[in-house]
Amino acid sequence: MAGTISRIRLENFMCHSSLHIELGEHVNFITGQNGSGKSAILTALCIAFGCRAKNTQRAATIKDFIKTGCSYAAISVDINNQGEDSFKPDVYGNLIKLERRITESSSSTILKDQHGRKVANRKDDLNEIIEHFNIDVENPCVIMSQDKSREFLHSGNDKDKFKFFFKATLLQQVNELLETIRDQLNNADSVVQELEKSIKPVMRELDELREKIKNMEHIEEIAHDIDNLKKKLAWSWVYEVDQQIEEQTVRLQKLKERIPACQERIDRNTVVIDDLKKELTEKEELVRSLGDKTHEVNNMKKSMEDNIAEVVKLKIELEAEHERGTRTLEKMNGRLKQMQAQLRDFQMQHMQFTQAEASQIEEDMQNIQRDIDYLDSNVTRSFSLIVLLTLLNYIQVNILVV
């Protein structure tokens, strides 16, 4: 029977390194354990007949079907082409061989005849065969995958089942095609209406010209009658009738001279339409230019976000330094208070000690004073760190505002 599959060969496709299947003329069953590659055979048929990788719900790109560790994958499908429904039997013979080869960078499809001679390699030729045999791999009634079966069996209401039926019977495709045709008709109707509006003045002038031409034809009939009257009335009215004929001839000539002007106006309207098309092209280029500028702005935004991230990192480091300085300052303040208490004790003792001990106390006071100066310098440094942290916070806020 024409359109049935007789042989499938897979090489480095998904889990199959090399697979060769001969199919019977009627119903065929393929059995095996889970993970043995049954669904891979169905997926290979979908890919061979032009299905996109995402629609198989097995991979994101076509190269993902290549078996791990291999550089290519190959699918070969033999289609019977015998009987009254055969497709171009004089070209392909009794068998059509479809070969699909997939690499990391590309994929190709080749159609061969029954003797293995290459016939075509264009996608349109494959689509022609698919349409002839009515092979729609995306139709769940033609190929029902596990996911489609699960979706149909788990649909809980009539609406979901109708969606499945709508897609399976190609009504959805017909509906989308009708909507596309409706949009195209609406666009064409709007263009026709605009053209009619621009042509209406010219059409009115043409109608006037037609009316005048009809009148001129009537005048020619009158002129013929006048010739008959001239013959009957001899030469009595010859001069007057000739004068009228000449006037009408002049008028007719003027009307004929106006015809090129009307044609010129029609041509000008055609030029206006061409100018509008050119303006549309320029606007499309402007849109592309705006898209490029938007890309540049996004890059600037990313750069500013990176700068903000660096400032935040520096802020965290300064906050840690500030915390350490604060703890050090608290310790120094405690030390300062102890030293001040010691200084007061020394001053009290100074009044009680003798003159000989006064010099030693003076030296101790100087040492304490130096410690106080050192603590004071550390306090000043901690204050500078606080000021710098406040400045960084201010800069970060300004950057975020920008």
From TrEMBL:
It is found in: Chromosome; Nucleus. The lineage of its organism: Eukaryota, Viridiplantae, Streptophyta, Embryophyta, Tracheophyta. Belongs to the SMC family. SMC6 subfamily. GO terms for cellular component: nucleus; site of double-strand break; Smc5-Smc6 complex. Keywords: ATP-binding, Chromosome, Coiled coil, DNA damage, DNA recombination, DNA repair, Nucleotide-binding, Nucleus. It comes from Aegilops tauschii subsp. strangulata. GO terms for molecular function: ATP binding; ATP hydrolysis activity; damaged DNA binding; single-stranded DNA binding. This is Rad50/SbcC-type AAA domain-containing protein. SUPFAM superfamilies: P-loop containing nucleoside triphosphate hydrolases. Residues 167-378 form a coiled coil. Residues 7-233 form the Rad50/SbcC-type AAA domain. Its main location: nucleus. PANTHER family: STRUCTURAL MAINTENANCE OF CHROMOSOMES 5,6 SMC5, SMC6 (PTHR19306), STRUCTURAL MAINTENANCE OF CHROMOSOMES PROTEIN 6 (PTHR19306:SF6). It comes from the Eukaryota. GO terms for biological process: double-strand break repair via homologous recombination.
